[in-house]
Structures are given as C-alpha cells and as structure tokens.
Amino acid sequence: MRIDVISIFPEYLQPLGLSLLGKARQDGLLSLEVHDLRDFTTDRHRTVDDTPYGGGAGMVMKPEPWAQALESVLPVEGTREGKPVLIVPSPAGARFTQAMAYELAEEPQLVFACGRYEGIDERVIDWAQERFDVRPVSLGDYVLNGGEVAVMAMVEAIGRLVPGVVGNAESLVEESHSDGLLEYPVYTKPSSWRDHEVPEVLLSGNHGKIAQWRRHQQYARTAARRPDLLADFDAAKLPRADREAFSALGYDVVDGRLVLRPESGDAGA
Fold first, then answer.
1. Which of 25, 192, 222, 228 has its CA 20 to 30 A from that of 82?
2. Is 147 annotated as a binding residue?
3. Domains delineated in the chain
4. Residue 143 marked ligand-binding
5. Is 139 annotated as belonging to a binding site?
6. Which residues form the tRNA methyltransferase TRMD/TRM10-type domain (predicted)?
7. What is the pLDDT of residues 73-106, one digit of tens each?
8. Backbone angles phi, psi at 43, to 5 degrees
9. Distance between CA atoms of 219 and 227, rounded to whole angstroms?
10. 50 labeled binding residue
C-alpha cells in the first residue's frame, strides 16, 4: 500500500515512523510519504492561504498549491488501475469507522489532505473528483485545528490492517468493532492483585466456557457503553445462551434484531 499525506506541518506526522507502522515502512509493507504543501507555492513567502470571498472570519487555503501537490502524487499513467482515494478530514464528512478502515486497507493508494484554517477552497474538491475517489471523512462530531491529528488516527487504524503489519493477525479479529461490538475485558498475571481477582472462568482451562464468557462480556460492555451499536447487530442466529445473556441485559430478539424492553431503561446501567 502507498500512502501520501499532504500538510503544511509535515513534522506533525513524524510519529507515523514509530512502532508497528514504522517497522512496516522499513519492511516495505507500507510506502508512506509526507509532503509539505508549501513546496508547491510560488511566492517567496510560501503563502498557502488567503481571505475568504464573501467575507467572514479566518483564512481559506488557496487552490493552486493543493492542485500541484495532488498532481505530484498521482500515479504515472498506466501503472495502476483506478483512481487513488483522496481522504479529506472534515467535520462535514462521513464518520470514520472500523468498517471503513477495513475497506480502505484494500486500496493500493491513499492520499490524505490535511486542511487548516477555515478549510480548503471547495474548487479543489470539485477539481479532484476527476482524478481521485474523493472522500471527506470525520473522526467525530467535533472540530480540530487541522487535519493532521485525524490523519494520524486514520493511517494507524488502516495501516495496521494491511497484511503483515500486525504480527499476530488473530488479534485483529477479536478487538473492538471488528464484529460490531466492543472488546471484552482482558487480564494478565498475577491472578490476584490488590484484592482484585481475575474471573475464575479465565483460569479454568475450559476454552468453550472462556469463549462464551468473553462473548457475553462483549454484549454487556456494548449495552452499557455503546448501546447504539446493538441497533445493527444481527441476532437471528444467536444460540440460546446468548439470547439469555441479552435477556438479562433487558433485550429481546424480535425478527432477528435486538429490542430493548421499555421497562429496562438504559441497558447495563
């Protein structure tokens, strides 16, 4: 996978050279390049912004430096099929999810455009549609000073899904959101710590019971912390024990979906 990031603060992205992503770059699993938008300006002040048409507070990023920067990361004609995916972090974008991370991890090239100030001139987005698969994406319903923090989060979430980046691929299967639920709690040695004990089932050696306990812990944690995730959960083929676990949390299975009983209030509370 090739990843290109364009920013006026390329040093902001230095942490992407650390840990598993840094090793993946060294091993050739990921090609990750950070480009300084100011290198594509033509004036001696390396200006990347100007006042907004129509008035208003703040500054807007100029279109021409962005067009030249984006052109510089386009693949050479004939070397790759399809358009690169251009991800523009924006509070007005689609919500970034684990499912989206899996989807983007299948792409051969991702380009991230780190906006600043009041954003990038909208004409850049319109122009880029002909050359890129443009996707405005949001980390959540809040505003950051720029796109760099969001890009670091997305690159890590996506990059770790590229085959070979995470040593134990099984760890990707059981983590939060991989199956639409939150991850179960985990424990390590010692089994007794400051009057807190590891659940006995984890010490039993009974892998069937351990798997069921972990699954039911996922249900309870998701119901308590992120009940919205259960709205899309497919409960049609749940075994009896799992249905009983959800029933204890206040949910009934109706037409293959989980429905919170009115008298239950907030499940898991």
1. 25
2. no
3. 2-167 (3.40.1280.10), 192-260 (1.10.1270)
4. yes
5. yes
6. 1-231
7. 998 765 556 799 999 999 889 999 999 999 999 9
8. -100, 160
9. 9
10. no
